[in-house]
Design goal:
The structure holds two protein chains of two kinds. Chain A is α/β, with parallel strands linked by helices. Chain A has eight helices and 28 strands. By secondary structure, chain B is an alpha+beta fold. Chain B starts with a strand and ends with a strand. Classes of the chains: A alpha/beta, B alpha+beta. Bound molecules: flavin-adenine dinucleotide (2 copies). One flavin-adenine dinucleotide binds next to helix 1, strand 2, strand 19 and helix 8 of chain B.
């Protein structure tokens, strides 16, 4: 058993930012555990640009963005272990990890930050019928095959789902000489960023079919085509509209799920909506001293928000290690009417924070609305939006005065109102 | 020494080969796919049936009961996943209640032990998540669950260790006899000769038989579709939950698997094509709707995969086991459900029968024990630590969802009758069988396969013809 003040699980942007800010808050006894052979997480395979506009005011590629944080971790000489998989964490903050050189290692930590990211939803999650042949990949797997390993998964592609990774892969595959025949989305709107729809789909004249689904996958051995059909307002396929598109590859981009097995093993309470932990403004979960940040907490669309959130987690963990105190006298923050969730779910009545960023997602596309915050019915903020979509995370940053209002109340509701 | 050819490497072919390998004979299995267990054996409910369902005085009833009783010892000897978890047949309608009694009596006739008719309350006590509409159930204590492909692989490995030869990619296309010797020819051109040919070709057993025998058989492919749920739903059922067959049809089952997932299905539809393993929109909808009748809280969102299997339904309705009208040509055909359950008993019977016909002697050095791949995921920490000390590759996790290490994957490739493709690794180690369905580990598994087999990454396949990567990207 190794004693360690702070164990950070995951060396993606969340884990790196958390480590850096914990260090800068005075904590020196830190280890980052990462199962891959390099730091940087999912960013390593995102070789397109568009990262860091908020944080660095410039457009970086994924690996460049990651490199900046890796550098800061290296400069601070923060310990990290690669090719090390964490098998379990318990509520006493004992972290069990394994790698080839050290074998099975147990850390007894004063604080743990879960920064394990998310995984892609597999085919099963959407019940696509048809052949069970080769040639069906998650968009992220295809991204890794092309960008990291240098292999093309196919030549004629249909993408199912319009999440960001799918959109980005449509462009990437096109660059590599593949023909993307269609992007098929069940909902009447995309679950990806508008920016990606314009830059990755429209600019390349790739057909984007909303309110459509795949009803059959054909092929023996390898995919030979998909049958798609329009759906009615109950999302049931209208079989009379069925048409076959020939292709050799199907990419699925049907959403991401926070990777919360470790949180579960530590008896951390999870939100049924986000799939991540429920946290307070310090990113502390329901278990004292266990924090969560990044995509494991809720799926982000922009890495800049991941970094910011994770710095908060790092700072709070450092403070927790010193003070060994958790404030559980909470005001609850909930999403109502069109707002699916709010993170953090709790704000401590004794909070020391001068600034709190609320992050939320909406349940549908709404135009000309206001994001309104009500504390026990009283409006404390209102943010005008021309359009909000489920694919784009919304944020509201609260100032000291607004936080003081919240501390006096019981329940913070965030809701959508017409103009 | 006598030569025996077994056509087909499903559970029937593998178990027959293993039981035959107790005797002094040269045994060769010819399988058209790259691996054992790629036919019906990989896609079924995996239930070790108690035996109340089979018609009395049929081969199905006989071998079901005999087979079921063998599982506890066999699962230890061959080290494959098996749990005797018990089963319930739910009755939803008072009017159907007498038919539970019929099932009970049929079970008694067949010699099934430990049957009991339960009240509604008793059912809820056993299975709190079943529908409140239930009015009673038949409980069968001896029912179990098995991992069917792991069972077939275990049989194959043990057969191989005892001298049996497995040849893959060998589709048998012609069989002829002269002077008591059989010549079996494969599509790839090879010829094999033998004193005895055992037909274990599953849905194609009629095709093989009808090439040789005067007495024709007819096997109708009948498809069954399934949905498999994430382990987080595993708490919803601990026993196998059947529905009482009613005017609404046969009903579908909800069962835990040996690895803690929930399986629901199967449908039953006759199909024209014996290789048609497509799942259908209608089939999956039927499975889902009917499963809710038994366990209303099943949530489609937690389905991780769907699949289908083809039953080898013999038009005569019973197993066809025995030497055919041609001496030296032996049928083990029409082995539909409860085929998996019956296979161990069928295999012993077939091997003894053939040994008698060919005057085979028992081997003195037969080794009945097979040790499976160590499964890191379910080991105690102390055992994990020891294993890594012996081989550091057990410290490298490749499949995150199922916690499968590189050590296990390498073992699965290099052991007897080892994995040759991605699905082969998956069936042996569970790499890629978890909730992300290989999204993260696919290319790592491909790399390990390429390295261990000494082939190019691009040539690694998912299964048979299923190539995964089309080619090198432009750099
Ligand atoms: C494919 C893709 C494309 C994207 N495109 C953009 C974009 O264009 N622009 C943008 O701004 N944002 C984009 N994002 C979003 C942004 O990059 C992510 O939100 C961000 O990378 C999340 O950071 P993270 O650290 O939470 O997760 P990750 O980057 O996934 O890092 C988690 C790390 O934890 C490790 N880990 C997990 N479990 C364990 C364990 N048990 N033991 C040890 N290590 C473990 C993982 O290996 C991984 O390295 C994209 C996201 C994805 C998935
Ligand atoms: C939907 C469904 C549910 C079931 N549920 C259960 C259950 O719960 N419990 C139970 O006990 N049983 C069950 N069964 C039955 C059980 O799965 C089968 O009885 C068993 O798997 C049959 O094994 P097999 O070896 O005969 O067939 P297979 O596994 O199909 O093996 C036959 C092999 O022969 C090979 N082959 C065919 N033709 C040739 C050729 N020309 N040359 C070379 N090789 C050839 C094939 O490739 C195949 O590998 C179920 C079956 C289905 C379809």
């Amino acid at each position: 058993m190794i004693d360690k003040n702070l164990v950070i699980i995951g060396g993606g942007p969340a884990g790196l930012a958390a480590a850096k800010s914990a260090y800068d808050s005075g904590e020196r006894d830190i280890v980052i555990l990462e199962r891959e052979s390099v730091l940087g997480g999912i960013l390593n395979q995102c070789i397109h640009n568009g990262f860091g506009l908020h944080t660095f005011k410039e457009e970086l590629t994924g690996p460049e963005y990651a490199a900046r944080y890796v550098e800061q971790v290296e400069e601070r000489k923060i310990e990290y272990k690669l090719e090390t998989t964490v098998l379990g964490v318990n509520a006493d903050k004992v972290v069990t990890a394994v790698n080839e050189t050290d074998g099975l290692v147990k850390y007894r930590a004063k604080a743990v930050i879960l920064a394990c990211g998310c995984r892609e939803r597999p085919r099963g999650g959407i019940n696509v019928a048809g052949s069970r042949c080769a040639g069906i990949f998650s968009a992220g797997t295809a991204q890794k095959l092309i960008n990291i390993d240098g292999y093309m998964p196919g030549k004629e592609i249909v993408i199912l789902g319009s999440g960001d990774i799918g959109l980005i892969m449509a462009r990437r595959m096109t660059f590599e000489g593949a023909k993307v025949k269609a992007v098929v989305e069940l909902m009447p709107y995309s679950s990806g960023l508008n920016r990606n729809i314009v830059q990755c789909i429209k600019d390349f004249d790739i057909p984007l079919l909303f309110s459509h689904t795949v009803v059959d996958i054909r092929g023996e051995g390898r995919v030979s085509g998909v049958v798609i059909a329009a759906v009615d307002d109950k999302l049931q396929p209208i079989m009379s509209t069925a048409q076959e598109i020939t292709c050799d590859t199907i990419l699925l981009s049907i959403g991401l799920l926070p990777e919360n097995e470790l949180a579960k093993s530590a008896t951390v309470k999870l939100s049924p909506i986000t799939g991540g932990a429920t946290v307070d403004e310090n990113m502390m979960t329901s278990v004292d001293g266990i924090f969560e940040c990044g995509n494991v907490l809720h799926v982000h669309d922009l890495v800049d928000f991941v970094s910011k959130e994770s710095e908060e987690a790092g700072r709070s963990a450092a403070r927790y290690i010193k003070e060994n105190r958790a404030d559980r006298d909470y005001v609850e923050a909930v999403g109502c009417e069109g707002v699916r969730y709010v993170v953090p779910q709790y704000v401590s009545k004794n909070t020391q924070s001068e600034q709190i960023q609320l992050k939320m997602r909406v349940s549908n596309v709404f135009k000309n609305v206001r994001l309104v915050g009500l504390i026990d019915g009283k409006e404390i903020f209102s943010k005008k939006k021309q359009i909000v979509t489920p694919g784009e995370m919304e944020t509201v940053t609260l100032n000291k005065a607004q936080i003081d209002e919240i501390r006096k109340g019981k329940r913070l509701e965030v809701t959508l109102k017409g103009e | 020494m006598k030569d025996i050819i077994v056509i087909g490497g499903g559970i029937v072919g593998c178990s027959v080969a293993r039981e035959l390998s107790r005797y002094n004979a040269r045994i060769t299995v010819l399988e058209k796919f790259n691996d054992v267990s790629c036919g019906t054996t990989k896609a079924n409910s995996g239930i070790v049936h108690a035996g109340f369902d089979a018609k009395p005085d049929t081969l199905k009833a006989k071998f079901n009961i005999l087979g079921n009783a063998m599982f506890d010892d066999l699962a230890k000897e061959l080290d494959f996943p098996f749990v005797r978890n018990g089963a319930l047949v739910l009755c939803f309608d008072k009017e159907d209640f007498p038919r539970l009694g019929e099932l009970y009596n049929r079970g008694l006739d067949n010699g099934v032990e430990g049957l009991k008719v339960l009240t509604k309350e008793e059912v809820f006590e056993m299975e709190p998540y079943v529908s409140k509409e239930v009015v009673g159930a038949l409980y069968a204590k001896t029912s179990g669950i098995v991992s069917p492909y792991e069972m077939a692989i275990a049989y194959a490995e043990n057969a191989a260790v005892n001298g049996c030869e497995f040849n893959f990619g060998k589709r048998v296309v012609s069989i002829c006899e002269s002077d008591g010797r059989w010549t079996v020819e494969c599509q790839s051109g090879e010829k094999y000769s033998a004193d005895m040919v055992v037909n274990c070709a599953g849905v194609y057993a009629d095709d093989i038989n009808n090439r040789v025998c005067d007495k024709k058989i007819n096997i109708v492919p009948r498809k069954g579709e399934y949905m498999l749920y994430d382990k987080s739903c595993g708490y919803l059922a601990t026993r196998t939950i059947f529905q009482m067959p009613s005017k609404m049809g046969k009903g579908i089952l909800v069962s835990p698997t040996t690895h803690g997932n929930i399986i629901t299905g199967p449908t039953a539809n006759d199909v024209d094509d014996k290789d048609n393993l497509y799942t259908t929109y209608e089939g999956l909808s039927e499975v889902y709707e009917k499963s809710l009748k038994s366990v209303p809280s099943l949530n489609k969102r937690f389905v991780i995969t769907q699949f289908s299997g083809i039953r080898a339904h013999s038009v005569d309705g019973d197993f066809i086991i025995g030497e055919s009208d041609k001496k030296g040509f032996y049928n083990v055909a029409g082995i539909e459900s409860p085929g998996l359950t019956s296979a161990p008993a069928i295999a012993v019977h077939v091997a003894e029968d053939i040994a008698g016909k060919l005057n085979l002697e028992r081997k003195r050095d037969f080794n009945p024990v097979r040790k499976g791949i160590p499964h890191f995921a379910i080991m105690a920490d102390s055992d994990r630590a020891k294993l890594i000390e012996q081989n550091h590759l057990y410290g490298k996790v490749i499949c995150r969802c199922e916690v499968v290490t590189e050590g296990e994957i390498v073992d699965s490739i290099n052991r007897p009758v080892g994995a040759r493709d991605v699905d082969g690794v998956k069936r042996r180690t569970r790499a890629g069988m978890g909730r992300c369905q290989s999204g993260f580990c696919l290319e790592k598994v491909m790399e390990i396969l390429a390295r261990e087999l000494g082939v190019d990454f691009e040539t690694v396949v998912k299964h048979e013809k299923g190539n995964i990567v089309i080619g090198k990207a432009k750099k």
